Amino acid sequence: MNWQLDSTAAVPLHQQFETRIKTLIEEGVWQPGDQIPSERDLMQQAGISRATVRQALSALVHDGILEKAHGRGTFVRRTRFEQPLTIVYSFSQQLRSLGVTLEDELLERVRLPASPEMARRLAVPVDEPLICLKRLRRVNRVPLMVNIAYLPYALCPALLHEPLEGSLYVHLTTHYNLTIVSATDRLEAVPADSTIARLLAVPRRAPLMYVERTAYAADQAIVHLGYNYLRGDMCRFRSDMQHQPASLEVKTRGTV
């Protein structure tokens, strides 16, 4: 590889080297997720010192272009998708607004009776039939999330068999007149177990963002309970907050 570096130029070598790495990424020579050569290999290829290589790589890591994985090496950083928490969102619709399409693989679709816990969560009788959907969702062929959804069978019985692509919420609205108007999300950082790690192509115990969602229709009926496991290196959530003065409510004791 021709690194096109000039030791006599006014621009320092580490900046030339940094610019050249950016160019290789922009030209697609190194793709997001690719591991770049080791420091030793880069020194030999470019004919520069280890200090120069490290200075350039550190700057690129700081700028979010590269990332270091302890014990594994340095990689071109994957795109992180940011999701605001101020709206009831659909992952596929939000990504589509960015020009990105989720590629879905249906892993499982079954009808099962509601366990006591699931019945409580969905506000249905125990043993009420449910539909369970399990999907692996990719972006540019790279696994992004595992989505497990539970829905009352009575609300959308044909969903057990009919084609399903893209947004589940759009499908529920267009086919069953079930529009999601509100939702409660609970977010938690969790390590990937062996099953989820295999599906998401990450090491076991890699950090994931776990999002548990309860979604409601206009009549406050629970339509959807979702368990979502998202790669921590590819997504993040944003909450916009404003300062408000503290308020103190004083209640008077009633007269006996």
Mean pLDDT: 85
**What multimeric state do the chains show?**
single chain
SSE topology string: HHHEEEHEHEEHEHEEE
Number of helices: 7
- CATH class annotation of the largest domain: Alpha Beta
Q: What percent of residues are in strands? A: 25-35%
- Low-pLDDT parts are none
CATH topology of the largest domain: Chorismate lyase
The first-to-last residue Cα distance is 89 Å
Q: Which bin fits the share of residues in helices?
A: 25-40%
What is the makeup of the main sheet?
6 strands, antiparallel
Shape type? elongated
What is the topology, as strand order, of the major beta sheet? 4-5-6-9-8-7
Name the CATH architecture of the largest domain.
3-Layer(aba) Sandwich
CATH superfamily of the largest domain: Chorismate lyase-like
Protein architecture, described:
With 256 residues, the protein is α+β, with helices and mostly antiparallel strands. The protein folds into two domains: 13-76, Arc Repressor Mutant, subunit A (Orthogonal Bundle); 81-238, Chorismate lyase (3-Layer(aba) Sandwich). It contains seven helices and ten strands. It has helices at residues 13-26, 39-46, 50-62, 91-97, 116-122, 168-176, 194-200, and strands at 66-69, 73-76, 81-84, 102-113, 129-139, 142-152, 182-191, 207-216, 222-231, 235-238. β5 and β6 form a beta hairpin. It is elongated. It starts with 12 loop residues before the first helix and ends in an 18-residue tail after the last strand. The model has no long low-confidence stretch (mean pLDDT 85).
